[in-house]
Amino acid sequence: RDRPRRPLAAGGANPHLASRTFARCRRCIGGLGDMALTARKKIVKEKGQEPDEFEESVAQALFDLEATNNELKADLRDLFINSAKEVDVATGRKAIIIHVPYRLLKPFHKIQQRLVRELEKKFSGKDVVMVANRKIMRKPSSGISNARPRSRTLTAVHDAILEDLVYPTEIVGKRLRHKVDGSKVLKVYLNPKDRNTTEYKLDTFSSVYQKLTGKHVVFEFPLQD
């Protein structure tokens, strides 16, 4: 004998099948929501601002590395960034500038070479640079020199950005050149031992530094005898 069929709901749908399908979809959507919220912990913007779509993609990449890369997992667990921006550089390439909290700069430096390498893979070979968030304080009107820490002066912050951009390569010299038209160009010399791993990024360093400070800098390796 034929088994009696369960009655169909209006429109011919099986209510039990529809209920199970809805439950599965709800779990899927909930899982995606939880993933997005978890990845969002990798970016904390100032003043409670919301990250844009590109920043969320960088945060997701950091979260994925924390979840899947055994070499980076432990070190990335307590790290997060403040912002990320994609910019054009002089050679027609694109670069990603990642700002990190100043207090987390040293922990980021600990894994920076491996982290940058993995991020550049995830973002199709775009150059990745990391810079600490620093505040520039105006010159005090009171005339009291100790009212402003030296590390908060314009010169000190711009010098620190230079160090951040090329890390872990060491800056071994600087020379300020005056052009005929009155403009100035700062030449920054990097440790030649890192030429093979850093030379392809020299144009990126120059472009990013100019975007961040408005100053033109040329990065070179000193000539060796």
Radius of gyration: 25 Å
The percent of residues in helical segments reads 40-55%
Structural class: alpha/beta
Q: How does the overall form come out from the CA principal axes?
A: globular
Span between N and C termini? 98 Å
Oligomer state of the chains in this structure: single chain
Walk me through what this model shows:
The chain has 225 residues and is of the alpha/beta class. The protein has seven helices and six strands. The protein has helices spanning 15-40, 53-68, 73-76, 105-122, 154-166, 195-198, 202-213; strands at residues 83-88, 94-100, 127-132, 171-178, 184-190, 217-220. The chain has a three-stranded mixed sheet with strand order 1-2-3, with helices on both faces. The protein has a three-stranded mixed sheet with strand order 4-5-6. The protein is globular, with a radius of gyration of 25 Å. The N and C termini lie far apart (98 Å). The model is unreliable at 25-35 (pLDDT under 50).
